[in-house]
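Progress note, sequence design subtask.
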């Protein structure tokens, strides 16, 4: 049986890092980061671009789920609204009938998120405005119908190992 891991969390909780490690820990695994489906400059958020990114994500996930080479499909994205998770799962419904779906939210306290993002800002990987946007989203994840995993004070490898045991 296949596994689909939908891993959400605000910027700075460690989604991408954890998922890269998880891909190595799970057999026959493939990883898609939602950001790769919407990497544009300028980054424009409209109803059209939001619809496009969901189509891109669901197309790729559907392809991975239908491909016999993969038993573990890992996806991460911000996904701070239950409606986004539900929409993705509804679009994938035929492909997830014989699949275990794991919906997970990675969490961390505000100080941890801010410190991680500050390192990224100093390294040139992010712009300073990410901190306020990320901290504003933090409370959203506690409301979601997902398994919550706190990443504060833990290595990405430990978090990935916890997810792999699900």
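Output:
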């Amino acid at each position: 049986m296949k596994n689909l891991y939908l891993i959400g969390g605000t910027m700075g909780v460690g989604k991408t890092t954890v998922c890269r490690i998880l891909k190595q820990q799970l057999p026959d695994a493939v990883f898609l980061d939602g950001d790769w489906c919407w990497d544009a400059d300028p980054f424009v958020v409209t109803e059209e671009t939001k619809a496009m990114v969901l189509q891109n994500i669901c197309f790729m996930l559907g392809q991975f789920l239908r491909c016999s080479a993969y038993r573990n499909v890992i996806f991460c994205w911000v996904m701070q609204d239950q409606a986004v998770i539900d929409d993705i799962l509804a679009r994938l419904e035929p492909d997830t009938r014989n699949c275990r779906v794991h919906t997970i939210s990675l969490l961390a306290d505000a100080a941890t998120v801010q410190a991680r993002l500050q390192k990224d800002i100093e390294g040139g990987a992010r712009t300073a405005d990410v901190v306020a946007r990320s901290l504003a989203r933090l409370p959203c994840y506690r409301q979601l119908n997902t398994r919550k995993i706190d990443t504060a004070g833990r290595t990405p490898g430990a978090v990935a190992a916890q997810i792999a045991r699900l």
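The beta strands are 2-8, 29-33, 72-77, 99-107, 147-150. Work on this subtask will continue into the next period as scheduled.
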